Amino acid sequence: MWEKAIIGMAALRILSGSLEILAALLILKVNEVEKALLINSGLAIVGPVILITTTTIGLLGMSDRISFSKLAWILVGISCILIGVRK
User: Which InterPro entries would you find in this protein's record (predicted)?
Assistant: First the structure.
């Protein structure tokens, strides 16, 4: 069957996708640019949180099969992504 890490990662991605769809429907419902931007800004917070959490679950799931140096490079890469998105 599936590993626990896979189930956790998939569940988070399903949650994230559901939030995206819900936000799109809410944007259509409010039908105002200002409110739509507020809703969209809320999604900007959810995306990186889901990315970090999903990656963490994946790394923990394979922590016994990955070297410390590779783990460090992955963390550096994630940090670069977050810095690039922030600025």
Answer: Uncharacterised_YqhV (IPR020390)
